[in-house]
Amino acid sequence: MRSSTTAKFDIGENEYQPVNGLITRTRPFTGADKLFEIQLPDGEELGHQPGQFVQLLVPGVGEAPFSVTSSPTKPGPFELTIRAVGNVTRALHNMEPGDTVGIRGPYGSGFDPDVFEGEDILFIAGGIGLAPLRSMINYTLDERERFGELTTVYGCKEPVEQLYPDELEEWAEGDAMEYFETVDQCPQDQEWDGPTGVITSIIPEVDIDVETTKVLVCGPPVMYKFVLQELDEMGVPDGNIYLSLERNMHCGRGLCGHCQINELYVCTDGPVFHYPVVRDKQEAEV
């Protein structure tokens, strides 16, 4: 297994010059979400830290930041899970294996596995927020002996919006990690035999040591407020909580100001933040 200290891919002297990334595989999950596997030149590995991101350029269309969803323990190509919501992402969804994109990075501050070594960890993911957390989840599973008890709580709007169904089944059936899931609702034309309700409705079911467990959270902006309230009611100290604010990323280098949270820049100071750092920042909306 590769460790968290793997050297970062050498992007060359000009960090603003993308390198070619070859799309080697795609997999659609829902009508809007698709996984892309991307190979760097000469078979180089990205060497990212879980929670970091890359800037991806679709030639002739534009560039956007995306969290890396594969673990650095996975050899070869890296993976991105992308929702089609804008010009760049819709153009990317029309691309196929064999097509080339531009890649810059990895950038930002991620989840440093060394910080969590020996600790119990609770992952809380909402919707597409599972994508950036998946990198750290799979890292801890691949390096299982380095970590304490592992628990994942995942919620999405409805069953068809679940990401990585094969992995979710493995997590649920395996004994390496406790896994809980819910959906907000189940339309009549879909099948679901699990809990129904917002993600905070199942968090109290989780059996953790609230004083020591580290909690890693990523999801839609509205989720943070209610998840943090629930964790506070459970007695989880603020210092045990880490948030990925990856949806605030923009240019990747903190130059355009779109990612600014008071004096912080999500692209460079984050996207992963220790909760006490952003707790009182009004613009963080947490």
TrEMBL record:
Alphabetically ordered keywords of this record: 2Fe-2S, Iron, Iron-sulfur, Metal-binding
GO BP annotations, alphabetical order: pyrimidine nucleotide biosynthetic process
Pfam families named in the record: DHODB_Fe-S_bind, FAD_binding_6, NAD_binding_1
FAD-binding FR-type domain mapped to chain residues: 16-113
Needed co-factor(s): [2Fe-2S] cluster
Keyword Nucleus: no
Residue numbers binding [2Fe-2S] cluster: C251, C256, C259, C267
Highest taxon of the lineage: Archaea
Entry note: cofactor: Binds 1 [2Fe-2S] cluster per subunit.
Alphabetized GO MF terms: 2 iron, 2 sulfur cluster binding; flavin adenine dinucleotide binding; metal ion binding; oxidoreductase activity
UniProt name for this protein: NAD(P)H-flavin reductase
